[in-house]
Amino acid sequence: MTVEQNVLQQHSQKHQQTLLNQLREVTGTTDVQLLQQALQVSNGDLVEAVAFLTEKNAKVPQQDEATYYQTAQITNDRYISVGSQADTNVIDLTGDDKDDLQRAIALSLEESNRAFRETGITDEEQAISRVLEASIAENKASLKRTHTEVWSDSPNPHERKRMENCPVGLKNVGNTCWFSAVIQSLFNLLEFQRLVLHYSPPARMQDLPRNQKEHRNLPFMQELRHLFSLLVGSKRKYVDPSGAVEILKDAFKSSESQQQDVSEFTHKLLDWLEDAFQIKAEEDREGEKPKNPMVELFYGRFLAVGVLEGKKFENTEMFGQYPLQVNGFKDLHECLEAAMIEGEIESLHSAENSAKSGQEHWFTELPPVLTFELSRFEFNQALGRPEKIHNKLEFPSMLYMDRYMDRNREITRIKREEIRRLKEHLTVLQQRLERYLSYGSGPKRFPLADVLQYAMEFASSKPVCTSPVEDIDTTAPPGGTIAQLPPPASAGEQPDACVSAEGSGSGLQASQQQQQRVSIHKPFTQSRVPPDLPMHPAPRHITEEELRVLESCLHRWRSEVENDTRDLQASISRIHRTIELMYSDKSMMQVPYRLHAVLVHEGQANAGHYWAYIYDRHHQRWMKYNDIAVTKSSWEELVRDSFGGYRNASAYCLMYIDDKKPFLIQEEFDKETGQMLSGLDKLPPDLKVFVEADNKLFEREMEEWDALQARKLQQEKLALAAAAAAAAAASVAVQPMSTEPCSPDNTAAPQHDPEYMEQQSPSGDSKHLQEDTERAISKAAAEHDEKSPEALLNTAMKVEYTRLLRLAQEDTPPERDYRLQHVIVFFIHNEAPKKIVERTLLMQFADRNLGFDERCKSIMKVARAKLELIKPDEVNMEEYEMWHQDYRIFRETSVFLLIGLELFMKKSFVEALMYLIYAYQYNKELLAKGPYRGHDEELIAHYRRECLLKLNEYAAALFETGEEAKVNTGLSIMNDLVVPCLPLLLVDEMEEKDMVAVEDMRNRWCSYLGQEMEPNLQEKLTDFLPKLLDCSTEIKSFHEPPKLPSYSTLELFERFGRVMTSLTMGRTPADGR
C-alpha cells in the first residue's frame, strides 16, 4: 500500500469514527456493533441512522456479515464521542411530536458537519478547546483571587523552593488537574522522558509548516520539552504548565466552555505526540518505513477470532489504551475476561455449523506500556445525563497477561472451561448453602440450625400459667414498673401459679426443672429477654416421653444441619481457592506487568478532581502527585483511594509496564564515569541553558525577597529604638534624680522577665505571684527566725518548689490544669533541666514589688544579686528562652482553645472556627516536643471538626434556599472558611474521623449534581465543586490568627476550668461524630 493510499484509508477511518461518535452522542447507544449496523443500513446517512435506532431501540437488530467483518482501525480506540450543541435554531421538544425530535437531531448533526466542512475541526476538538479556554480564563482570574483561596502562590519564594531530590509538582492553572495527572505519569516513565527531552525538531521546522498538524504539534512538542526539563532540574517546588495549555488552546477555535471526560484529553495528547514523532521519523528515514517510538511504546496488537452465522474469521487489530467496563465486575481479571470474549462463543470450539455469532480477542503483541482505561462513566438515558460508577474494582500490583496471549489460546480455553464448570458447581453449592442459612417460606428467613435450636428451647420451657393473658393486671397503670408479688397461698387453696404439664406438682418443682434445662444463649442470633418482660412462651401440654423424643430428634437434626453447613462452606472455599490458583503455574506467569501509575478521579460525572499515584522504583515506594503537592504514599492509601466503593474517589486509568523491560524506568549513566546522571546532567545542552536561566530568575526572586525582609526588619528596629528613646526621655523628665551611687554592674543590659511574670505593678499576674512568694517567705521565716536573708531565701525557694511539685504530681482533670497557674508546674511536667527551673524560681523571688517589709526586701536583694552572679556557662540562656517561649505558646494555645470553645457553645461557629484551627495547630507543634506540653489533641480535633461540619450544613442550607444573597453568603462561607481548612484535616490521613468528615461535606455538595436547579445556581455549583474536591494537602495561604485578649493567670485558670467543666457535663468529645 502506498503512502497516499494509507493516508486516504486513515482519513476514511477517522471520518467513519466521527460519524459513530456523533451517532452515539445523539442516541445514547453504546453498542458499537449496533451503531455500525445503523450506519450500514442508512448508507452513512446520519438522519436515517438515528431514525433506525430510535424506532428499533426496543430490540437488537440482526447483524449482517459485512458490518461484523469490519475491524477496528489503529485510531478507533483513541477517539471517544464528545457532545456538540446547536446554539441557534431552537426547536420545542416538550411535546410528543416525533417530527420535532427528528428535526432537532438533523439540525444538530447538520450543524456539526457544516462546522467540520468549514473549519476542518471536529466536534471533539472544539469541545476540548472549550474546556481549555475555560482553564486559561480560570488561570487569568486566579490572579485576582483573594488570599484565602488555597491555590494562590505564597509571596515568600522560600516556601516555593524545591527540597533536595524531591519531585517537582505542576501548578493547577484552572481545572487542569487532569493535565498534571497524565503528564506526571508519563514523565516518570524514564524512557518516555528521554524521548521527549532528546526530541530534536525536524530541520524544516524553521520553514513554514506544511500542514495544520505541523503548525500545532511541533510547537507543542517544544513546549513539552521545556516543561519536562523544568520537572527534571528546576529549583522550584512546582512549575507552571500554562505554555503547553496555551498551545492546546490556540490549536482550536471556540468560545464556549464544556466539561469533558479526561480520557478525551489523554487520547488527544498521545495522538499529538505520535504525530510529532511521526514527522521526525519520516525525515530521519528517507526511503525506509519509519518507526514511531510512540507507537512502539504504547501500541500493541490483538487477534480477533470470531464466528458470524457459522462462518469463521480472524483479523489482526491494533490498540492503544485498552477500554474496560467496570460495572458488574469485582476485579481487573474479570473485566479483561469479559472484554476478550464478545457474544456467544460456543460455536468457536464446535465442529458443527452453528448460526450463533461471537468473537474472542487474543493478544499477539503487548506494548511495553500497557494502559487500561476503566469506564466509570455511563449515560443514564432516563435522567438524560452522565453518571459515575462508584463500584469497587480491585487490581493487582503485578499483572500476569499469559492467559490472554494468543500463544496460550488452547491452554486458556481449557482452563476457562474448567473455571466455567467449577463456577456452575459453585453456584449449585451456594444455592444449597443459602437454603440452610435462610430457611423458611415467608418474607423473614433464619438459619436452619438456629430454627432447630429455638424449637428445642421452646419444647424445653415450662409455662408459668395456663394462659398467656391470665397473669396480666389490667388495672395497673401502663407506665408502672413495680411488679406486685402474689400473696402466699393458704394451705387449703391451689396456688394460682404454674401447674405442671400433667396437672400435678408445685411451682417450686417446675422452677427446679426449668433450672436444670438452661437454654443456650446465642449472642448473634438471639436477644436476651429483659428481666421485666414476660416469660418465654412454652408448650401447654407435653409429656416427658414426648419431650425426650423431641429433644433427641432436634439435637440430631441440628448436628446434621451444622455438619452439612460446614461441609458446604468447606467445599465452596476449596472451589474458590482452586479458581484463584488456576493460572498460578509457572507456565502462565511468564508475561509480568508491574503497576506503574494509577490515575484517580474524585467526584461525580460532571465535576471532580484528578491526581495520580506513581511508583518510584528507585526508592521502592509509591508517590502521590496532586498538582503542586508531591508526597510519599503507600499501597494502602492507593487501595483506599483507587479501588472505589469507599468514597467518591476511584481509578479511571491504570498504567502497567513490562517487568521484563527495565529500560522503561532505568536511569541513565555516564558512559565515561559510570555514575548515574541526575538533575541538569540529564538534559541536552539547549534545555540545560533554559533551566539554568529559569533557576537564576528564581534565585533572584529569593534574593529580592530577602532584601525586602531585611529592609522591613531594619525599619522595625529603628522604630522600636525611636520609641524606646522617647520613653526614656519622658521617664527622665518626670522621675527625681537618684541619690544612690550607681553600681558598675547596673550598666549591663537588664534581664527581662517573661511577659507572664511582669513586675510593673502589684496587680494581675504579678500580684498573684507575689502572694505565693510572700507566703513561702513567711513559712520559711516561721521555721527559722534567726537565719540570714540568704538562708531564708534558700528555705523559701524550697518551700515554694515543694508546693509546685505537689501541684504537678496531682492527678487532676482538665478543668484544674495547674500548668496554667505557674510556669514551673509546666516545666516539672515536661522534665525541664534543673538549672532552668532554679533560675525561673529565683526570678520569682527577685520581684521588685515583693513587699515593703525589710525581710522581703532583703530577700529580694539577695535573689537579684544571685541572678547577677550566674555565669553564662552555668545556664544556657538560649535554652532558657526556648523553654519560656514554649510556655508562652502553651498559654496562647489555651486562650485560643478557651475562646473557641466558648464561641462554639454559643453556636457562633463562624467566629469560633479560626480560634479552634489555631488552637489545634499550635497544640500540635507543642505535642511534637512532648506529650505534656499541650492539651488533649483529640478534644481539639473533635470541636474543630464539628465546627466545620456545622458551617458546612449552614452554608448548604443557605444554598438550598435558591435566593441570590443567601446563596452567595453560603458559598462565601465555604470558600473563605471551610475549603481553606480542609487540607488541615487531610494532612494527617491516619485520622479517620477527619477523613470521614471531609467526605461527608463533599458528599453533601455532590448530592446537588443530580437535582434540578436554576442555571445560575448550576453555574455557581460547577465553579465551586472543583475547589471543594481538590485533595491537595498543600496549605498555600491562610487567615492571620485572631488577636488574643490579655488574661491574668488567675482569670485564665478559672475561665478555662469553667469551660472544661461545661464540656464534661455534656457528652464526651472523644466519642467523635
Description:
Strands 5, 8, 11, 12, 13, 14, 15 and 16 form an 8-stranded mixed β-sheet that branches. The N terminus and C terminus are likely disordered. With 1073 residues, the protein is an alpha+beta fold. Helix 2 (32-41) crosses helix 3 (46-56), helix 25 (877-905) packs antiparallel against helix 26 (909-927) and helix 27 (937-961) packs antiparallel against helix 28 (964-986). It contains 31 helices and 16 strands. Its EC number is 3.4.19.12. It comes from Danio rerio. Belongs to the peptidase C19 family. It catalyses: Thiol-dependent hydrolysis of ester, thioester, amide, peptide and isopeptide bonds formed by the C-terminal Gly of ubiquitin (a 76-residue protein attached to proteins as an intracellular targeting signal).
